[in-house]
Amino acid sequence: MKLNNIELSFDNFASEMAKLKNEKHFDYLVTIIGEDFGEEGLGCIYILENTQTNERCSVKTIAKKVDGSDVIPTVIHLWKVADLLEREVFDFVGIKFLGHPDMRRLFLRTDFQGYPLRKDFDMSPEANKFPCTDEPEDDFTVEYSLSADGHLVATEKRRFDDDEYVVNIGPNHPSTHGVLRLQTVIDGETVKRIYPHLGYIHRGIEKMWENMTYPQTLALTDRLNYLSAMMHRHALVGVIEEAMGIELSDRIRYIRTIMDELQRIDSHLLYLGCTAQDLGALTAFLYCMRDREHVLNVMEETTGGRLIQNYYRIGGLQADIDPNFVQNVKTLCKYLRPMIQEYLDVFGDNVITHNRLEGVGPMNYEDCINYAVTGPAGRASGWKNDTRKRHPYDMYDKVEWKEITLTGCDSMDRYYVHIQELYQSLDIIEQLIDNIPEGEYYIKQKPIIKVPEGQWYFSVEGASGEFGVYLDSKGDKSPYRMKMRPMGLSLTGALDPMLRGQKIADLITTGAAIDFVIPDIDR
């Protein structure tokens, strides 16, 4: 969508945002984009959605200078997902959010100097901003506020009491799915609080994009959630194509929809296998990996890739489908249908599985919206958040399929949503595969692509939730600012409320069930 921002000043920001949430029911905070707007100063764009009507709006506010710092009132009391989103903005842009209870860096080290997404940030090694020693740690955080006479006040707060026992789950732990570190406060085996530490593999993709041409930006999305590579790149080319007004052929849209669903099956199969493996069940993992190979074989003959899929490009596809693609996809669908029941027979309906998953990591409908828990994890609590239904793209509104929602609000239903979504992906593919129209697989573009001036946001349904890309263009061949809405960041932020009062073993189960992938979070 093209953004037509509601512009709010510092003085009326808090009251107007409360009205949008409480009176106009914009209860889903999609993302917060921190940006250096040049002469305007530093500021944020908030993308909001009304979950009753699926209407979206965007709000822009410029930070106020107070005692040399840029400040904006927090919205964490309105949308809980703002906790990590505001910390991310502080980390990379340097805006301090007044009233946020934990204003620490989120991805970068605590002793990192400067804010990388400011336009005046010095990237040269000589600037000596990249410390090589062990990261200093303390048990304190800071909350910022304004005094009665308008000055910035920093109040130091302690995160851990003297008698609290803190255990690090990760960053080198096989069941955190990568280098995720969870500082976990426990009482015996009961979890009291969780503080996620991110950024162990941060690669600075959003900063790198600012110095790349638009075609050069594409390869980096495939390396985020490598199990949603198609969908990630789909969002990126989608926002560029929408901004440029490119009309795609039906052939392109059919093939993209089929490829997205094959990628979703690929991801869900690995999810089912890894959930079992995290709980100690190796057989189910082997079954799922066996069948995932068949999916990758079908994709590889057209794309040339298995894990990293370099297939979509601005204006269409890298190449047309392989001559055997249609028949191989039909054979794959026929093979997979009975296999799904086999996963349940081996693991999904096992009494041990039910004991480990039922009632574990609970989060109700309202909290899933408040913490922006999208994807199967949110749909297990009854929230109809599927982007393919809410904001349809390509062929998703031209085929018959069901959005799977359950009401168990726990890890067991998150597992079952993934199971049932496999059937829906097969239904979508089977409706399209025999009807791929003739036409161009690529709409030729100019050698140097320039996007008109403006701001856009385009989102797709990734394997684990909504993945979106924000684009701010000044009419050049490189983006002024591009920001991703990762699937896993809000899922990670929801771990704390999900797990309070649960056992340490439930932490591993819940992490497996909500299905995050660390490169998608860290970027």
TrEMBL record:
<keyword id="KW-1003">Cell membrane</keyword>
<dbReference type="Pfam" id="PF00346">
    <property type="entry name" value="Complex1_49kDa"/>
</dbReference>
<protein>
    <submittedName>
        <fullName>NADH-quinone oxidoreductase subunit C</fullName>
        <ecNumber>1.6.5.9</ecNumber>
    </submittedName>
</protein>
<keyword id="KW-0560">Oxidoreductase</keyword>
<keyword id="KW-0511">Multifunctional enzyme</keyword>
<keyword id="KW-0472">Membrane</keyword>
<feature type="domain" description="NADH-quinone oxidoreductase subunit D">
    <location>
        <begin position="278"/>
        <end position="446"/>
    </location>
</feature>
<dbReference type="Pfam" id="PF00329">
    <property type="entry name" value="Complex1_30kDa"/>
</dbReference>
<dbReference type="InterPro" id="IPR037232">
    <property type="entry name" value="NADH_quin_OxRdtase_su_C/D-like"/>
</dbReference>
<dbReference type="InterPro" id="IPR001268">
    <property type="entry name" value="NADH_UbQ_OxRdtase_30kDa_su"/>
</dbReference>
<comment type="subunit">
    <text>NDH-1 is composed of 13 different subunits. Subunits NuoB, CD, E, F, and G constitute the peripheral sector of the complex.</text>
</comment>
<dbReference type="InterPro" id="IPR022885">
    <property type="entry name" value="NDH1_su_D/H"/>
</dbReference>
<comment type="similarity">
    <text>In the C-terminal section; belongs to the complex I 49 kDa subunit family.</text>
</comment>
<dbReference type="GO" id="GO:0050136">
    <property type="term" value="F:NADH dehydrogenase (quinone) (non-electrogenic) activity"/>
</dbReference>
<feature type="domain" description="NADH:ubiquinone oxidoreductase 30kDa subunit">
    <location>
        <begin position="12"/>
        <end position="125"/>
    </location>
</feature>
<feature type="domain" description="NADH-quinone oxidoreductase subunit D">
    <location>
        <begin position="449"/>
        <end position="523"/>
    </location>
</feature>
<keyword id="KW-0520">NAD</keyword>
<dbReference type="InterPro" id="IPR001135">
    <property type="entry name" value="NADH_Q_OxRdtase_suD"/>
</dbReference>
<dbReference type="InterPro" id="IPR029014">
    <property type="entry name" value="NiFe-Hase_large"/>
</dbReference>
